[in-house]
Amino acid sequence: MYGVLAVEKVSRYLALWGKKFDLDKERGVIVVHEKINDEEVDVQIRFSKNWVVTLVKLGSLKELQDDVKLKVYEKLLLLNRMYAEVCFSIDEEYNVYCEEDTLLEALTLDVFLEEYNAVLIAFELWEKEVMPIIKAK
Amino acid sequence: MSLSTEGLYQRIKFYLSLLKKNIIYEDKEKFIIAVEEKVDGKPIVVTVVFLQPVWIHIRAKLIDGSEMEKLGGSRYIIYRELLKVSFRSAEFKFAMDDQFNIYITEDIHVAALTFDVFEEEYNAIPAAYKSFYEQIYPEMKTLAETQKIDFT
To answer: By residue range, what is the domain housing residue A93?
Structure first.
């Protein structure tokens, strides 16, 4: 279940901002097509009863050895502490995400832009701070 | 409504008074307010600070870094569980400092600071604390026992 009004509100914000995006009305999911450092990145925006969830999938840790996973997890948790706006998390399949959650009652253009920009910052942090750990394995 | 630092400080103190919270320490100059909470009868300290320029940051320490270090390499299991819980629960964000202390943290953009939002974010802290001690801490104890580590 998701709030149709919230979807419309976010779609309008994205349109005002000049972002390229697709809206899956049935699932209530928006996918924004970003280009960061020449890399195509899809930012997903999902809606639930109380939350707008903006997230980007950053990569998978599944194939990494445990000692490398340890270093990556530590880095992600440290970055969560260092950057107020950034929240890294992982799913059951060891995919890493940056996720920003906005309470529906806090959803304004200013707040949305700040939360949205946070996932773009997180993508850059992932490239700069985490990928070197993975590549050094 | 004022968005000055003074205005924000007073607004948060007002919200905490409405919520009948027990403020145990405050430093207006540094914008630090510490509140004593009880989770299942256990006292915890919730700290509210202002991170310039736009974030109200609420946090509580979940476990001391020295305890984490005792687990050695197997602490990755705990980190993994914390990051998984963050993914599953919109309101939970776990973080670590360079002393390996683990925190639950919430951040509110100043433009989103209303009583309802503050209350929701604040309440996520004791909820996460409870969730940590019910779901993750037992795994830490088991790991410690397996490795014959003295764990508090």
So the answer is: 4-135
